[in-house]
Amino acid sequence: MEQINIIYQGKTISASKGTTAIEALSNFFTVDCSRIIAVMVNNQIRELNYRLHEDCDLEPVDITTGDGQRIYIRSLVFVFIRACREVFPDCKVSIEHSFGGGLYCEVHGDFTLTPRQVHRIEHQMRKIVEADEPFVKIDMPVEEAGRIFREMGFDDKLDLLRYRTEDKISLYKCGWMYDYLYGYMVPSTGCLKTFGLKFYLPGVVLRYPDKENPSELAPFKDSPKLFTIFRQSEKWAKIINIENIADLNRRIEEGRGGELIRICEAQHEKQIAFIADEIARQKDRIRLVLIAGPSSSGKTTFAQRLKIQMMVNGLLPVPISMDNYYLDRDDIPMDDKGERDLESIDAIDLELFNEQMTRLIQGQRVEIPTYNFSLGKRVYTGTEIKVNEDQPIIVEGIHGLNEKLTEMIPRENKYKIYISALTQLNIDDHNRIPTTDTRLIRRMVRDHQFRGTSIEATLDMWASVRRGEEKYIFPFQESADIMLNSALVYELAVLKPYILSLLEDIPDDHRYFPEINRLRKFLKYFVDLDATDIPNNSILREFIGGSCFHV
Predict the structure, then answer these.
(1) Residue 107 sits in which domain range?
(2) Cα radius of gyration rounded to whole Å, the chain
(3) 7 bridge partner residues
(4) Which of 46, 176, 372, 517 is the most buried (most CB within 10 A)?
C-alpha cells in the first residue's frame, strides 16, 4: 500500500495511506480516548478515527484544552439527549446554559422531572457508555438532514437549516439517534467515563470532568443569584418569542428588527432604572456603589447610564476610577509567568483607596490621583473632590465585589452590582451560545474598531483575561446585591458584519484557526441586522461605536 509520513513532536513514522489518526498516534504512545479527545492534523481539528491520506503533522487534543473539553462535553450532551429520549420517548430536551461547573438542562414532557427520574436518565447514560457505541459521522444533503430532523421531532433544527449556506451537512449517529451538535465528537461512548447528573429544580445539571483534574468531576458550585438571572433572561426570551437563531432571523426578515432593538433597549433601561430606584430608596445608608463584571460586559456604559438614572432620583453620584489606584508598575506583583499581574487585587493600592474612600464618606476633601500608564506611576494633578450626603460614589472595576477592596468601609454602606453578558439566545435546543463567545466577539470588534488591535492580538490576551476572571471576579459574584444581564438578544446579528470578514481573513495555517473557524461557522447562521436603530446610549455602542458616552 502507498505510504505517508506522519510527524509527531519531531519524530517521523511511515504508515499506510488511510490509517486513522488514533492508529498513527498509537505508534508514539498509548492513547486513552477519555483523555486524548481528538487530534490536530496540519492545524485542523479532526476526530481520532479520521483517516490520513497525505503527509502530515499530528498533535493530540487533550481534554484539559478548550477544544478538548468542548468535544468531550458535546459528545456527553449527545448521550444525555439520547438517554432522555429512551427514558421519556416523547420528551423535549433543551441545553440551557453553563452553571455550577456543568451545563444546566431541562427535560420537558407530560411529566414533572424529579430526582428519581434524573437517576433513571443517568442510569441509562451509563448503559450507553458501557456499550461503547461508536459516533458515526455521516455526510448528507441538507434536504436529507431535514427529513431526519422532522422524523425525530427536532423542529428547531429544521428551521435553522434554511440559513445554512452549504448544500451538505455532517450529522452524527449513535445507536438509533441522529443529531447535529456543531463540532467534532469522541470516537465512541466508551470514552465518556466521567460524568454525573444533579437534579436542580426544575431541571438538571449535566456534570463533566474538571479541566485541571479530568479524572474527577468538576466541583459543583451553587450560584442561586446567577441562576435567577439566567431564568429571568430565559423567560424574557419566551415573552418576546426569540429563543434561538431561527426565531431572531425570522423577526429580522419580517422587517421588525428595529422594533426588536427598541424593545430590548427599553428592557435594559427599565432594569437600570430599577437599580437606581433601589439605591435611592436606601440612600441614607448607601455611600459606595461598586460595579464589577468580566471583560466586555459593558461596565463603563452601564455606570454612565446608572449615574443618569440616579440623577433622575435626585442623587448626584460621583464616579471614581479604580485604575487611578494602581501601584507604581515596579511594585505590581508578578504572575506565575513572571509578568506584572494587572488583574490581581494586590496591584491596587488598597491602603490608599480605603483611606480616601473613608475620608470622602465622612465629608472630607481629598486629592484624587491619576494613573499615568505611560510612566507606570500615580501622579497628582490637583484634582480634589468632596462629596455630600446626596452624592454616592460610583466605583467601576473588576474587584468591586471583593470585600478586600473596601475592607475599611462597613458592608451596609456599600451596594454591589454584578454585570455580565449572559447570552440567552441559543443556536437551537441542543446547542447553546456560550456567554464567553459573546463577550469575546464584543471585545474583538471593540479592539479592532478603537484600539487598532488585531484578532490575533485579542486572542493572545484572552487566555490571561479569562484566568483573571476565574480568579478575581467569578468567586465573588454571589456577594452582589443585584445582578444585571447586559446581553442583548439581537446583538450577534449586529456584530456579525463587523467581525465576520476579519475572521475570514485568517488563513487555515494560523495558530488560532480552530478557534476562529468555530466562531465564524456559527456566525454565518445569523441574518445581518443594521445598527442604525441602536440608540447612542446602548451598551452595544461601547463596542461598535457611536456612543454618547466617553468610553
Answers:
(1) 68-221
(2) 25
(3) 12, 57
(4) 46
